[in-house]
Amino acid sequence: MSTALKRFNGGARAALTALLLISILLPPAAQPVRAQGGFNLPDGFVQEEVVVGLKLPTSFAIAPDGRIFIAEKAGRVRVFHKGELLAEPFIDISGEVNDYGSRGLLGVAVDPAWPRRPYVYLAFVYDPPEIKDRNKSGARVSRVVRLTADGKDLNKALPDSGVVLVGKNSIARYVGNPDQGDAEPFSCLDENKRPVRDCIANEGDAHTVNMVAFGPDGALYVAVGDGIVNSRGNPRALDIDSLNGKILRVDPDTGKGLRSNPFFDGDPDSNRSKVFALGLRNPFRITVDPRNGRVIIGEVGNQKWEEINIAEPGANFGWPCYEGPEEAASYADCRPYRSGELAVVAPTFAYTHTAQPARGAAIGGDLYLGRTFPPIYRGAYFYHDYNGGVTNFLTFNADGSVTDHEFATNMPGIVQMTATNDSLYALSIVLGGLYRIRYTGAATRPTAATATPRATPRATPARGEEAGAPTATPTPARSSGAAAGKRIRAEVWKDVSGSDIDAFLKTPQFRNEAPTIVELDRLAFPRGSGVNYGVRIRGYLVPPESGDYRFFISADDRGALSLSKDANPANKVVIAYTPDWTNAEVYDKFPEQASGPIALKAGQRYYFEVLYKQGDGKDNLFVAWERPGGGIEVIAASYVEPFNE
């Protein structure tokens, strides 16, 4: 790494200091999972089911009294208390939440002084009422709010108790283009094209505000992505006066910047006074080290690299001028960083995207500071890769370097992990559940996967490349296996307008038996079948071999694939869907199109269901899988048994 770039490795400054353990009152004991296809854990560790049956859960927070608050993507906050998932939510703000694509209610935190301070904090993409009926994929804005629990029933929020802490100016007036995402004019800018105070932009369907967490000093930390894929807009991650692409540190009572912040300018309401760290693309999940106040960040990369970063006050990680250890193409003015005039901080650990094994989306986790796990895990940092469904952990060496170890596989769709004294909790948006990992017996010492952060010589992208450019499209899939005379039944309802699946399911037509049946030799609906129709395909998938499978879906306009852990339809969960239209057999336009690895047994029947809604006539629906050791193939009828009501 060139010293002229002044991109210093923050982890090399010093070894981590002595532990300061935090005692946490744990929730009620969970029951061990008995279903097949569980997490693949090291010897001595067990997986336990805490709560299931959640609808696209995105975040959770364990209160000091043991209850757990769980955010669902659409805008509901559920409560798990005394061993039960309560039917009534703590609050339902779905009317204020834009949950298009990867947007939604993505973060929840509980005040550390709960219940003396009965506050719950939420981070979400906001749908201002003036533009709520506009294109859902158009530009929006984000907010962080504080809610007060009812003193008579802490499982419910007091009506009208919401206080906007961050994003008071996240309003319709400052939304740039509510009818088109990732397009100019950009949001949260004034007439002089300068960032508006207290406004968080979200042109894209990802890179949103996504987490709220408390530090040991009582400050509230907020993780905010750059809010955009359009590379003309992502330089705002480096603009100290924009709230996007930052870790913010604010007063949990007022939302104001703290005087101890690195860029405090005397005005606690200025944007820069709230900034703790900058130069981030999609800091998906953070944890604040209680021993020293450093913020550990899982940074989801762009074209090649994933990062784990450790931020001290004022750290600049260089996005979009850098991705991983390399220079990246950008519309930003990167000359001050590349000349060495301004310093940027290198990742503590970085790894490249790979197809086999699948790696490509770092989900930040947590430090384990307890004493129950074996010694190697004590003080380690756990993180997850969403694409691979794997959880690894980093151990910190005396020279400031880190060692990467594999911990567990077959953990699909993990979106948040939190460590307590004796457990590691993992929330799966794919499985719709919260799980607990405990150590109960002797374990073998894991093998180190990487001794030091993986790095390659810095390289400047070829002319014409841009950050945010689409990844390569996979080769069109072939059908998997011969049909062998079997056919798949597709139920079809015609003359159903619109492109939304949820709306389709609520139509009078869907309540009646399907008037048309189309037989298929694979999970692909015939193209050119008309306009304004909906489809449901049900059956039992019978895998030909045991192992880890991944599933994919493409659709125009919308498609969703659900899979059960067994033959019971009641156990189905959505494992892949298209948040917007895709081209035929293109499975990488949106991350939601692909599942994580799911362990299946040969010859066992698994209920599946495909829902498809077509609106404008440019139709396609393809459902594929990646079998153990194989490539992506459209699922053939030979692996499907008909559904029996």
Explain this structure:
Helices cover 2% and strands 37% of the residues. The protein is globular and about 75 Å long. The longest helix is centred in the C-terminal third of the chain and has 5 residues. The N terminus is likely disordered. β19 and β20 form a beta hairpin. The protein folds into two domains: 448 residues, 6 Propeller (Neuraminidase); 165 residues, Jelly Rolls, CATH 2.60.120.
Question: What labels would you give this structure?
Answer:
disordered N terminus; 7-stranded antiparallel β-sheet; 46 strands; 645 residues; 6-stranded antiparallel β-sheet; 2 domains; single chain
Q: Which regions contain 5 or more consecutive residues with pLDDT less than 50?
A: 1-36, 443-484
CATH superfamily of the largest domain: TolB, C-terminal domain
Distance between the termini: 62 Å
**Could you say what the CATH architecture of the largest domain is?**
6 Propeller
Percentage of residues in helical conformation: under 10%
Structural class: mainly beta
The CATH topology of the largest domain is given as Neuraminidase
User: What's the CATH class label of the largest domain?
Assistant: Mainly Beta
Q: Determine the mean pLDDT.
A: 86
Strand content: 35-45%
Summarize the structure.
The chain is mainly beta and 645 residues long. The chain has three helices and 46 strands. It has two domains: 3-450, Neuraminidase; 478-642, Sandwich (Jelly Rolls).
